[in-house]
Amino acid sequence: MLKKRIIFSAVFIIGIFIAGFSVYLGTILFGNYAIDNKDLVMNASTTIESSDGELISKLYVENRELISLDDVPEHVRNAFIAVEDHRFYEHQGIDFRAIGRALYRDIITGSKAEGGSTITQQLAKNIFLSHDKTWLRKTKEVLMAVNLERRYSKDDILEMYLNNIYFGHGAYGIQTASLFYFDKPVNELTIEEGALLAALPKAPNYYSPINHPDRAKERRDVVLSVMERRGYLTAEEMVRLQGRTVAVQAKPLAENDAYLSYIDLVLDEAERLYHLSQEELLKGGYRIVVEMDPQIQQVVYDAFQEEANFPAVSGEEPAEAGFVLMDHQTGGVVAAQGGRTYVRRGFNRVTAARQPGSVFKPLAVYAPALDTGSYQPYSLLKDELIDYDGYVPGNYTHHYQGEMTMYDAVKESANAPAVWLLNEIGIKAAKTSLEKLHIQLMDDGLALGLGGLREGVSPLQMAAAYGAFANGGIYYQPHFIHKIYDRNGEVLDQSKLTHEQAFSSQTAWYMTKMLEAVVSDGTGRWGEFTGSLAGKTGTTSMEEVNGGVRDAWFAGYTPEWSGAVWMGCDRCDENNYLLEGSNIPAQLFKQILTDAYVDHASREMVFQPPAGVLDLADPIRFVAIDDLAAEVKVGWRGVDVQLQWSGSDDERLLYHVYEYGEDGITKIAEVQGEHGYTVKNVSIFSLNDYMVVPYNPQIDREGEPSNVAKAHFRFFSQSDQVS
């Protein structure tokens, strides 16, 4: 029996010597065998967060947040070193004592149970090798561990190890684990919390403090015991800490459905502007700060869940919608919703092109016309049914006034004046103007003035274009990403975003005043919002169905934000279309603004004219005069005819006074601010008739004439004369 033990011991010692010599020889011969530095770059999760630091989402293959060893408290490091590799700072990557014990166990048990691996070996195994248990893999592990020790310091290796290991429930790395289990960063961990994390890598699922708290506590207490045995804790500290319960505050990352469409738009922009693929974002550890206001995004999402906010449809497919709200002074999109039931990487209606209808008129017709300098808000436009080489645009009311001001044409969304004006300024001028708003069109027909386009435009394009009206004519390219930081904290190039002067500041101000009128008492009057708002409605009809609606729009802006909402069917046909028009998106837009402004003091802001522009007075309106009276007054000074009529409260309206005489009708006076006029020294033997016609100086036009009044006598009494 003793002889067998001697033989076994000799074999065991020779085995250790051979193993050590093999490692040494392998290191000399193979040098940097199988180590590729790029493999040491660990996958790190990318965070998407708001400008105030609120986490919106994490993107990852492995949910890992890298951390510096300097941020790991010493008692947390000690817990891992004590239980995993207590001679970590003494060996050179291989602990021959531990290997000897492991070989002994393997020989005794006749299996490859594995053991004695140092922290360096575990790092090598996790990064470079598979997890099969073979002697060849073990040899590779040893070679790599030695080479890691030659290349990196102990602290570097420990940092890589703590960032690499898996802690269960999808958490990779100690920082992610700390946030997940305790809702706190590593630097705030207590001793027993650090010991619990150190207990998990051995079997993360088996010792999960969430699923198996009793096992977790038992394993944690083992770690605390080992820490006491290695001199990191006193016996008293160990006993006290082992008496504490396992208290976790698990905080799994719950994906907020309200953010899904916005996140997808962020991913698309990261690839388009920063050339970062989704795969790179899942692994690269970027920090993406976005322009989203989470509270407003939630408001929009909640509004999209209310069935009452959407129009009725003819078929079974419900109405869909897309919404954008952006800061028009920067182009940053504060909220975007791509659909009512949006799913990740689904069809995003924020960027889907749709037929804009009349919401396109201010961009394609009225602003370009104002920019020419030949037209003003009160310029008169033809309002007639005109045939343009087979294209005959008609007003939706089927009524025509002959002429109307641009102001009224915008407010009432009349079609005939818009097309007539586009024909006057030319399609080239319109398209040149649209190009400054980053709207490229293939269309060359007059129908584009009414939003009849081949491909259409998206809510995102409309929100940005209307933002130029609010911003003194300056167009800012809409964007979702504020800044991107790489894993080293460096900011990626941001020179890709542009802005330019799309309209003159005078044009922008005139459009703002006219679009305010649209909202106050024009086609955009539906719904309630107490703040300053300018905007325009748009509706496209189903040609196949009388009264059917394909697309319904509202685009508008406040002094702070600009936005657009589209409603319609994803697949419109004669069996599936909207039964209501643009009044519904106008109401939804105002509801969202009302709810969004609850926590914003800027609600009381009003539109301010840019420096150096002419303001736009309210329109002067004609009044009907049907009570003109002409009284002859005889006094000691002679005979006068006193004219009286009821007129407008607007003192800017003028009145032309006409007299019917032997030579016909003669204009004898122009009156402003008065509803009466005295014709002096008339002949008592030839009294005439009179008429008053209102005159609007804004448009240089007379209105409808009053009734004709025949002068009749009235004799003053003595008391009348004295008074």
TrEMBL record:
Limits of the Penicillin-binding protein transpeptidase domain: 322-593
InterPro entries: Beta-lactam/transpept-like, Glyco_trans_51, Glycosyltr_51/Transpeptidase, Lysozyme-like_dom_sf, PBP_transglycosylase, PCN-bd_Tpept
Domain Glycosyl transferase family, first and last residues per copy: 53-227
The reaction(s) this protein catalyses: [GlcNAc-(1->4)-Mur2Ac(oyl-L-Ala-gamma-D-Glu-L-Lys-D-Ala-D-Ala)](n)-di-trans,octa-cis-undecaprenyl diphosphate + beta-D-GlcNAc-(1->4)-Mur2Ac(oyl-L-Ala-gamma-D-Glu-L-Lys-D-Ala-D-Ala)-di-trans,octa-cis-undecaprenyl diphosphate = [GlcNAc-(1->4)-Mur2Ac(oyl-L-Ala-gamma-D-Glu-L-Lys-D-Ala-D-Ala)](n+1)-di-trans,octa-cis-undecaprenyl diphosphate + di-trans,octa-cis-undecaprenyl diphosphate + H(+); Preferential cleavage: (Ac)2-L-Lys-D-Ala-|-D-Ala. Also transpeptidation of peptidyl-alanyl moieties that are N-acyl substituents of D-alanine
Membrane spanning stretches: 7-35
Gene Ontology molecular function, alphabetical: penicillin binding; peptidoglycan glycosyltransferase activity; serine-type D-Ala-D-Ala carboxypeptidase activity
GO biological process: cell wall organization; peptidoglycan biosynthetic process; proteolysis; regulation of cell shape
Keywords assigned: Carboxypeptidase, Cell membrane, Cell shape, Cell wall biogenesis/degradation, Glycosyltransferase, Hydrolase, Membrane, Multifunctional enzyme, Peptidoglycan synthesis, Protease, Transferase, Transmembrane, Transmembrane helix
A Gene Ontology term for the protein's cellular component: outer membrane-bounded periplasmic space
NCBIfam families in alphabetical order: PBP_1a_fam
Family named by the database record: In the N-terminal section; belongs to the glycosyltransferase 51 family. In the C-terminal section; belongs to the transpeptidase family.
Name of the protein: Penicillin-binding protein 2A
Native species: Evansella caseinilytica
